[in-house]
Amino acid sequence: MKFTVAIDGPAAAGKGTLSKRVAEEFGFAHLDTGLLYRATGARVLAGADSVEAATSLEPEDMERDDLRTTAVAQAASKVAAIPEVRAALVQFQRDFARREGGAVLDGRDIGTVICPDADVKLFVTASDAVRAERRYLELSANGHEVTREGVLRDLTERDARDRDRETAPMAAAEDAVVIDTSDMFIHDAVAAATRVVRARIKAVSD
Ligand code: CDP
């Protein structure tokens, strides 16, 4: 069976956790597409050309342990605005989305550009303050030296760049279900997402 769940939204809205849990719940594979841009950005910070870096990404590039830093996140959002970089990463994502057994992809343009025919589209969002606090706690817990102000600045800068770029800007697809997680526990957000996916699976199999 092929079944694609597209999950988009701004930085640190909870897409990662939500996507992982939805994938686990239904036995689908999960692709964090942000990692493709982060791995490209990391290679550029190390001196590579952006398009060359995106074209020659290897699985081990996605396993580097420095991909979660603010510097790499910023580099990711800069390379993500380059049309040739995005073009180099399209086919891999589309192939992943159409694999047998179902797939969940999270990113910024999954429901709009990568998989406009996805079976389910979710747009996960939360207030700036809530997203910054969550990301601050996550990075500090993982030993990163960050401040609340620095994290908030990174998120708002990247959101603006991601929303305003010409190629594949971050946007909710017209047919996306919007989940605002500002006042939700992760458990409730997962339950809401799971309900939408289950209803759709039922509808396509009836
Ligand atoms: O984890 P967080 O939401 O902070 O970021 P991410 O999903 O790892 O994405 C890092 C950066 O990659 C974003 O700020 C975007 O610029 C870019 N990105 C994108 O342009 N398109 C995607 N499908 C995924 C990420």
From TrEMBL:
GO terms for molecular function: ATP binding; CMP kinase activity; dCMP kinase activity. ATP binds at residues 9-17. This is Cytidylate kinase. GO terms for biological process: pyrimidine nucleotide metabolic process. One of its GO terms (cellular component) is cytoplasm. Its main location: cytoplasm. Its EC number is 2.7.4.25. It comes from the Bacteria. It is found in: Cytoplasm. Keywords: ATP-binding, Cytoplasm, Kinase, Nucleotide-binding, Transferase. HAMAP family: Cytidyl_kinase_type1 (MF_00238). The gene is cmk. It catalyses: CMP + ATP = CDP + ADP; dCMP + ATP = dCDP + ADP. The lineage of its organism: Bacteria, Pseudomonadati, Pseudomonadota, Alphaproteobacteria, Rhodobacterales. SUPFAM superfamilies: P-loop containing nucleoside triphosphate hydrolases (SSF52540). The keyword Nucleotide-binding applies. Gene3D superfamilies: P-loop containing nucleotide triphosphate hydrolases. It holds the Pfam family Cytidylate_kin. Coiled coil: none annotated. It is an enzyme of class 2 (transferase). Residues 5-45, 55-197 form the Cytidylate kinase domain. Belongs to the cytidylate kinase family. Type 1 subfamily.
